[in-house]
Amino acid sequence: MDTKLNIYNTLTRKKEVFEPINPPHVGMYVCGPTVYGDAHLGHARPGVNFDLLYRYLMQLGYKVRYVRNITDVGHLENDADEGEDKIAKKARIEQLEPMEIAQYYTNRYHSNMESLNTLRPSIEPHASGHIIEQIELAKQILNQGFAYISNGSVYFDVEKYNKTYPYGKLSGRLIEDLYSNTRELDGQSEKRNPFDFALWKKANPEHIMRWPSPWSDGFPGWHAECSAMGMKYLGETFDIHGGGMDLLFPHHECEIAQSTAAIGKESVKYWIHNNMITINGQKMGKSLGNFITLEELFTGNHKILEQAYSPMTIRFFILQAHYRSTLDFSNEALQAAEKGLNRLMKGIAQIDKIKPAENSTVKIDKIDAKCTEAMNDDLNSPIVIAHLFDGLKTINALVERKEKINSSDLELLKNTYHKWTYNILGLKQETDSKSNELFNNLIDTILNIRLEAKAAKDFATSDNIRDRLKEMGIIIKDKKDGFEWELE
Q1: Domain check: are 306 and 231 in the same one?
Q2: Which among 116, 179, 259, 280 could disulfide-bond with 267, CB atoms 3.0 to 4.6 Å apart, if both were Cys?
Q3: Are residues 416 and 450 in the same domain?
Q4: CA–CA separation, 381 vs 144, rounded Å?
């Protein structure tokens, strides 16, 4: 398939033309959540950004197998090889089974992602459901000589691996830097080097989540799950691996090392990372305690929120920034996103008011071409949105009959906006169509009464209607042949 889609490959640190390994099939793996708490705004960004990529690849005609994992075991505190499993810790505190915790927060994550209008992945494997595959991965790496057994645990030998393959090629970290920047911690003496990482951990007596293995009753290391499940469902080599920038090191770096050590070659062709959402310049996350859950955003129930923000406002807010740029949270930014979204949706609704003519005086195909060019330039959604806003000027001119459009071009205009706004950007009207139609008709009725008052020179009533509607956030624009209105 001939496509001009360029994407930034973190591995090579440059934009590359996207060329699937086995076209038209595309294998895409994205790191999903660790389900021990509610999804926050930081989780929304990869959810939306990789949904955008998924939608666009399908729009281009690719057959995409999208795999997004659920981490429900093996993720220890502080992303280290020591400490308590995050899900087991939550289960102990709440006196529940670990899988109750995992299922509860998985369900809530799904609900949040559906609110953001993200498409479900093709496959959503759980780490706890693929223990056998992770044990087999550890065996493969042991057989290749790049891992060692110590006190019932299996560790990846980073130093030995680095003698054959370069460790740190994704993040740019050198093993010499790891020597100087890591130190021996209590409980890590069973490792040959402090930067070695666990493929399998022997469980302490108090550890709840454990499985039998050739080495001990224990559990897999955090990094093992993605290598094992990615290769199981997408093959030894696949096209895209995505996730947040915070996973680049050590998680994704360790994935590359594991897969290469096991099969003698790298698994992933394109590594794609979205940047972070920040608050006052600081990364948002559970570990820092500065996160806002999606539920809090949707309800407005958080001390720093000035109001509630709808799921589509959050999605639009995320899409207004390029996925590789940082995105700083503020009430002002979200309120601006809310106004921008309303303006776009109102503009699209205006298309239905356009009356076709015999001839066209506007070039509609330019909108689609410009949006395609922007999207092919490393998924530049903010530029796509800017082009859609520019097109609203044409729509307004057509509504006011300052320009003309024939019926086929009008159909093209409608299809272009529906394709880019709904199918690719994944935005949608948030009120049901019946309620939305009733609201619009009600405002139109009030404004027609205002027109009658003006015609009767009852300016007091006319001005009163205008002022009262303005207080409710409805702005009126008087025209020679009637009126227009929009939400502020």
Answers
A1: no
A2: 259
A3: no
A4: 44
Q: Which of 399, 486, 398 is nearest to 444 (CA)?
A: 486
Query: How many whole angstroms separate alpha carbon 420 and alpha carbon 153?
Result: 51
Identify residue 399 by its one-letter amino acid code: V
Tell me how far CA of residue 354 lies from CA of 124, 196, 281, 307, in angstroms.
Answer: 44, 65, 45, 35
The answer to the question of residue 342 being in a domain is: yes
CA dist 291 and 411 (Å) reads 44
Do both 266 and 288 map to the same domain?
no
> Does some domain include residue 12?
yes
Whether residues 202 and 315 share a domain: the answer is: no
- Does one domain contain both 34 and 77? yes
Q: Is 282 buried (19+), middle (13-18) or exposed (0-12) by CB count in 10 A?
A: exposed
Single out the residue of 5, 1, 9, 27 nearest to residue 18, CA to CA: 5
Secondary structure (DSSP) of 285-308: -GGGT---BHHHHHHT-STT-SS-
DSSP 8-state symbol, 351:
G
Kindly report the CATH number assigned to the domain that includes residue 290: 1.10.730.10
| Structural domain range at position 254 | 7-274
pLDDT tens digits for 229-261?
999 999 999 999 999 999 999 999 999 999 999
Return the SS3 of 328. strand
* pLDDT tens digits for range 448-487: 899 888 888 888 888 888 888 887 778 887 876 677 787 6
**Residue pLDDT, tens place only, 335-364:** 999 999 999 999 999 999 999 999 999 999
What are residue 68's phi and psi, to 5 degrees? -130, 120
DSSP per-residue codes, 258-290: HHHHHHSS-SEEEEEEE--EEETTEE--GGGT-
- Of 381, 403, 424, at which residue does a domain stop? 424
Q: State phi, psi for 123 to the nearest 5 degrees.
A: -140, 140
At 34, phi and psi to the nearest 5? -90, 115
Verdict on whether the full-model pTM lies above 0.90: no
| CA 132 from centroid of its chain's CA atoms | 29
* Cβ atoms of 339 and 488 closer than 8 Å: yes
Pairing of strands 14-17, 25-30: unpaired
Long-range CB contact pairs, 282-290, < 8 A, 24+: 283/42, 283/246, 284/40, 284/41, 284/42, 284/329, 285/40, 285/42, 285/246, 286/37, 286/40, 287/78
On whether both 122 and 109 belong to a single domain, the answer is yes
